[in-house]
């Protein structure tokens, strides 16, 4: 596909508007549909405001902004989608709503049009069951905000034809994005591998090993992460973060590795959602005084080693189960959630025997499947191999 290709986006929320902006900025004619006229107006106003800020910051000219806006057609019906070469749905994370969108779209678009769903957690196979020709359908997971976040996960379904993923990946790469390929499994790469970043931090908090401020300090100061896990949960929203964990846990047939935290559940129930509610693990009130971290480097290193080892173990499992390549796993975590290093490359730097020892010690102490060492990690240590 080239810039002459017409792109259709269904859903004019933050994500849909962002995807439309990206496609239009790359020269495509874009149809942006929403069933609510008010949402379309909100989308157009919001986009104009964002682009005007780009002019003020001298990142764009008025002509460039006008060109982008002129290429986006805000529409209240799907009839124009007959001209689309590629159509992506970006509505709410509800299986039946998404299925309904594709039933309608399939009857309108041409036979050559590729259909895609933007989802972070739903099964691509389940959504594809609504289609008569599922071979031209796949999943695409943009990260929010779509114009700024470089990573896009490409997820073929069980029925997706071989050429569909390749054509889509080329198109999204041409939009200046970094794409990774993942199997249709819960959480794909990023939302699955990242679970221990939050889960193990919560576990240490519950055990009284350290408070939130100290864990965050350790992960930033010693681990090199841009944000600590509690800061990030507050930023994302504890309700959203908890829901993703709950979904991955359920979809993996209640595997203990993904077990949600009662602490976070209770915070969601109490309305302590983070920044958006004014209070989460931290207080965001005007005169709030939050606790200072205990800057004990030795204790901090234990925190970092525990969380990073758990992250590496999960990344190893994604590789072991052929969900993605080592390169794509590391790209996903550095580009999707800004980790300081790719986890498998990081494992090689630390030394796989040291990582395995960290995990094995936890497994022996707790005797929980949550800490079971991955077979691939064990094999590589046994054979004196590395991931790269």
Overview of the molecule:
With 388 residues, the chain is an alpha/beta fold. It folds into 2 domains: 6-181, 3-Layer(aba) Sandwich (Rossmann fold), CATH 3.40.50; 192-382, Orthogonal Bundle (N-(1-d-carboxylethyl)-l-norvaline Dehydrogenase, domain 2), CATH 1.10.1040. The chain is 50% helix and 10% strand. It has 17 helices and 8 strands. It has helices at 14-25, 37-56, 62-71, 95-106, 124-128, 162-174, 190-193, 195-207, 212-221, 229-236, 238-251, 262-269, 297-320, 326-336, 343-350, 352-366, 375-382, and strands at residues 6-10, 29-33, 72-75, 86-89, 114-117, 137-142, 151-156, 178-181. It has an 8-stranded mixed β-sheet with strand order 3-2-1-4-5-6-7-8, sandwiched between helices. Strand 1, helix 1 (14-25) and strand 2 form a beta-alpha-beta unit. Helix 10 crosses helix 11 (238-251). The longest helix is centred in the C-terminal third of the chain and has 24 residues, at 297-320. The chain starts with 5 loop residues before the first strand and ends in a 6-residue tail after the last helix. The mean pLDDT is 97.
List keywords for this structure.
388 residues, alpha/beta, Rossmann fold, N-(1-d-carboxylethyl)-l-norvaline Dehydrogenase, domain 2, eight-stranded mixed β-sheet, 17 helices, 8 strands
